[in-house]
TrEMBL record:
The lineage of its organism: Bacteria, Bacillati, Actinomycetota, Actinomycetes, Kitasatosporales. The keyword Hydrolase applies. This is Fumarylacetoacetate hydrolase family protein. Keywords: Hydrolase, Metal-binding. Pfam families: FAA_hydrolase, Rv2993c-like_N.
């Protein structure tokens, strides 16, 4: 799945009126995008050699998933802050692909909600068709990792008693800024800031169900295809945002995903 040996940062971006794929490289002491001939997740992506300044593009969501599988209650401190029970098995739900937005795009309040929360999460991007994958080989099916915000209408979730509808609204799945390959998903730091103030901070080593175990559990029942995304849960510190706020998700080894919050 790699273009070259070593970690890669792979982006999807708008340039000259259309969407393209590229990898970030350092040239003359600055990061630039080297244009790729195709989607690197779903096809062999040759580098074209053409280089484009980051200042000349608009970053898009780095992947267009066929489905987004998400995990709830995967950090003990988050379970405690919401006074919930710890599930024996992973608690799973789906977010629709229509919820996905990219860096800089606005998270919009739905008309049905008065309490929208941020949830910083590590996102896993699948690189190979995965079915009945054992945990010890699960990471072989991962293309890479990106930042995610599992935005939630918390008032609706309380009323429903389940997460799916409250997390399904358009703009409720920001992803980005790019996909980083060849990371150890058990050794990353996940942080969230709202208007520059830190609200969440935890290591992925504190997940109740690590990435490999989640993939094994999911693929025993559901086939994951290249480009599908797994959201791995959020740590403690979730809370509301209002129009005018700015939410930033930072993950070590990946980068920062920043989105403004807008009204209806």
């Amino acid at each position: 799945m790699k273009l070259t040996d070593g970690s890669q940062r792979l982006a999807r971006f708008e340039w000259q009126g259309s969407a393209h794929y590229g990898r970030l490289i350092t040239a003359e002491r600055q990061d630039v995008l080297e244009l790729l001939a195709a989607d690197p997740i779903r096809s062999k992506a040759e580098a074209t050699g053409r280089r484009i300044s980051l200042d000349d593009v608009r970053l898009l969501a780095p992947v267009l998933p066929g489905k987004v599988v998400a995990v709830g209650r995967n950090y003990a401190d988050h379970i405690a802050e919401l006074s919930l029970d710890t599930p024996a098995a992973p608690r799973l739900f789906f977010k629709p692909p229509s919820a996905v937005i990219g860096p800089g795009e606005a998270i919009r309040y739905p008309a049905q909600s008065r309490e929208v929360h941020y949830e910083a999460e590590l996102a896993v991007v699948i690189g190979r068709t995965a079915r009945d994958v054992p945990a010890e080989r699960a990471l072989d099916y991962v293309f890479g990792y990106t930042c995610a915000n599992d935005v939630t209408a918390r008032d609706i979730q309380r009323e429903d008693g389940q997460p799916s509808w409250a997390k399904a609204f358009d703009t409720f799945c920001p992803l980005g800024p790019w996909i980083t390959t060849d990371l150890d998903p058990t050794k990353l730091d996940v942080r969230c800031e709202v208007n520059g103030v830190e609200r969440q901070s935890a290591g992925t080593d504190t997940m109740l169900h690590p990435v490999a175990s989640l993939l094994a559990y999911i693929t025993a029942a559901v086939t994951l295809e290249p480009g599908d995304v797994l959201l791995t849960g959020t740590p403690a510190g979730v809370g509301p945002v209002v129009p005018g706020d700015e939410v930033a998700v930072h993950i070590s080894g990946i980068g920062s995903l920043v989105n403004p919050v807008a009204g209806r």
